[in-house]
Amino acid sequence: MSTLKLGCTCGQIQGLANNVSPKKGNHLVCYCDDCQAFAHQLNQASSTLNNYGGTEIYQLPPSQISIRTSADQLACLRLTTKGLFRWYAGCCNTPIGNTVSARIPLVGLIHTFIQEDQLDEKIGPVLGSVHKKFAVKPIPDTLLGPASQAQLVRRVMGKLLIWKLTGQSRPNPFFDPQGIPASPPTIVAKDH
Ligand SMILES: [Zn+2]
Ligand SMILES: [Zn+2]
Predict the structure, then answer these.
(1) 192 pLDDT more than 50
(2) Rounded distance from Cα 34 to ligand 2 centre (Å)
(3) Mean pLDDT, rounded, for 56-69
(4) Domain boundaries, the chain
(5) Its pTM surpasses 0.90
(6) How far apart are the CA of 65 and the centre of ligand 1, in A?
(7) 17, 24, 78, 100: least buried by Cβ within 10 Å?
(8) How many helices (H) and strands (E) are present in the chain, helices listed first?
(9) Of 2.170.150.70, 3.40.50.970, 1.10.8.420, 2.60.120.340, which CATH number belongs to 2-187?
(10) Which residues fall inside 5 Å of ion ligand 1, going by CB?
(11) Residue 15: count of CB within 10 angstroms of its CB
């Protein structure tokens, strides 16, 4: 098990992801248009998206994430009223991660918030890519990763079930025990 240092670009928000390992989480790249819209909304596309429009994320339960400084700078937006809660640093717009809701113990931690040079040693290489049809140009095979989207979805669902059964929604830096988000989300129109 390893610990990942987390932090926004300006350094105000710092945290840790604890007990990570290649087996425990899901390291993947999401090419969906919503992840792309989120990066563009924050004016962070160049630091967040790869050349093909993909966002590298590591999925883990919220209980493994602790925010140690400036948690009050956490900010949130949703691309629609029912969209994911997409978290970023209010101080410097660094994308932080995505959550579905308070009840689903899954965070898609975005690489921009992970301050590690040897990331793949700690969380393993990218397993696969999802929502490839939204890629802005054809993705080279070498970047795709070995797992298919169906395999990744099965893997995520399996882990999510375990995380749910073992109560890993708590503690949760993004939602209080009543399910209230740490920062009220701004709803932004998707096609900015
Ligand atoms: Zn910052
Ligand atoms: Zn996405």
Answers:
(1) no
(2) 6
(3) 98
(4) 2-187
(5) yes
(6) 17
(7) 100
(8) 5, 11
(9) 2.170.150.70
(10) 8, 10, 12, 89, 91-92
(11) 23
